[in-house]
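re: that chain from earlier
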Amino acid sequence: LAVAAGFDKTRRLRVSHAFHSARMEPMLRDFAAVLDEVVFAAPSLGWVSNVTGEPIGVEVMDPEYWVRQVRQPVRFADGVAAMRAAGVTRFVEVGPSGALTAHVDGVCLPTIRKGRDAPDSLVKALAVAGPDWVKVFPGARRIELPTYAFQHQRYWLAAASNSPADVDSRFWAAIERDDPAALGLDPGASLGDALPRLISWRRAQTERSAVDGLRYRVVWEPRGDHPGVPSGAWLLIGAPPGLAGTLRAAGLDVTETAAPGDHPAAAGVLAFPRDLAAALELIHTTGERPLWFGTSGAVAATAADPAPDAGQAQLWGFGRVAAMELPQHWGGLIDLPPEIDESIGAAVAAALSGGEDQIAVRPSGTYVRRLDRAAPAPARRAVAPTGTTLITGGTGALGAHTARRLAAAGAPHLVLVSRRGDDAPGAAELRAELAELGTRVTLTACDVGDRAALAALIAGLDDLRVVVHAAGAAQHTPLTAMTTGELAEVLDAKVRGAENLDAVLAGHDLAAFVLFSSIAGVWGSGGQAAYAAANAHLDALAARRRAAGRPATAVAWGPWAGDGMAGGVAAEQHLNRRGLSMLTPERALAALDGILAGTDTDIVIADLSWERFVPAVTARRPAPFFHRIRDFREHLAPPADPAADSGDLLRRLGGVTTDADRDRILLDLVRTAVADVLGHRGAEAITLRRGFTELGFDSLTAVELGRRLGRATGLTVPATAVFDHPNAVALARHLRELLVPATVSPLTAGVDQIERALAELAPESVEPALISRLEGLVAKWTSVLRPEPAATVDQDLAAAGTDDLLALIQREFGKS
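^ sequence. v structure.
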């Protein structure tokens, strides 16, 4: 910091620790202990160390080498120079961003690009290098491709290196690394003064494209299918007048009641809770029956709908979390119009059949909720607000980042509001940082939940033009453990301040009114039901303001990296495994620039890695909300056929005779599945008796392991299996106990084959000799395997112990 103070502009690295410095010394001993459990092998390729900057060999098998690697400086330039000295002329970067490519002078190919398909990126990198494709694809051969049938000219590319896209790629790659020779120029030539501008333009376009790729929106589309009415008795709680009669007219068996516990045999529950407290009580009392929440006016599904009712919208945010936490218990959300007639009742009854879980029934039809990609943002750079900008939660992580962005864009006056004002952690440093950017800064202590105090604050501000509501409180409590007190507290932190701002500023001429919402309110987030409800309220509030002709935009943010609510290494790893990449503040704020310049009422900003997100979000129930996104559909796994997948395993188990052999087969299955779920290279990485929780299992990975083992065995393997049977050996033994009665012996397989053959015959075509032979086999083996008992049943019972009673009863009933 002392050195940085001597420069006009510096930037701190966004890393969790000062790697490769003395700051790492406290962890070196523990790191060395971990390395003692790692199996090392000699490298098969030439190896240049960034610790020494020189070629090395078997030294990498020494754990001490890796301890030094954490502590010592990275000698990247020396390593590149050593490779050049060894005759290396082309480099390949293997990593998630291509960041090192720009620092290598010469041909360097990035193989992975963040947010892009990894195999596709690798093949494109190979194409730039101009490889021998026959070696890339072993067994392939070159062939001549045909011309178009009617226009006698080739429509196939003569070679990848001659395609327009490839020429463009090579051109820009050469410009970025300042490689005149690759452009046909003298190696000592200069690309001229235009080079910096060309590089800047291309990088800006690439970044803008990346930012636009973060933008999503919620839409409604007509439901295509018309399912039938569900069977069984349904409970109706708190329904609007007239609904029960129309549901019965549609063929649904409904009983109106005030308490779900009074009717334990019901097939499902459709409840219209008056508020979130009532909704929470229903979650706690309806048991395992499918629970649907009904609302009226919670969403605007058509252009004719009025602005959503924010209180009803809360139930939708709450319900979306219930779907994630209680997938077997949750039915869905269904919104009704004010007037109920027979057509509405019939549509509601059909909606309860399932398939969709976020539905709006309107006189014009039934609509389902979907996520879609949003149009690109209109602005390319930060918009400089005029007058005064008020930021609630201004000293928090998101508020402070926003303040820096607006100050850099030229905002003349920033008012940062928090509960502690000047006494908030980091407030003094933030004030100084913003002042250096030329912005007047006012730090104010105010509880925006106190309307009178907020009104007094705003009354004292001159020329208020922009409001950003970034205040809020995070939550991490499952629904089954949540109390009404916590529910009210989380709601109050986010909702009351937003409603107070809306009311106090009703007469102000604002240029922008921005509410920081969250994806938790858009598609749910485990442990955040109250927080999701609060953010759904903000989304509805923005729509209400827009409908009244006042500016408003709700931004549903994905998780921010760094010190945001989802910050921390463990949290980032947890979210990354689920396909939610952390938004860098720089990229999130670039998206905010476009939002401030646009006219969106609500927008979703999230960095989704679909190859990981899709399995995570569909692990426990379908997610039709995402079906409009092509990337989601492409990564959606086809439904598994447990019977087909499990047949081979059962035959292998039936082919061995001892439990030890069966355990060996099942242990290999479990270790392979565990390795796949946790991302290890193979089964050998999974220690036999090391606990699953120690290996890193959580609720989601436990669900995925259960799914994999279920497909392989044909069993229903619950997520709790990793906790009830806490290591590979225990889980394999448990599976064997379940499977051994169902193993397929060679004799059973033969009988199965005979049965299948008989099923294909017409009864009248069966030869009498075959019937006699089958009858003889049955008679013979019945007398051998089931001889008549020597004693009477009464005598047997009199002499039997308790343990024998069940066997005797089964034998006698089996005979009859």
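The radius of gyration is 33 Å.
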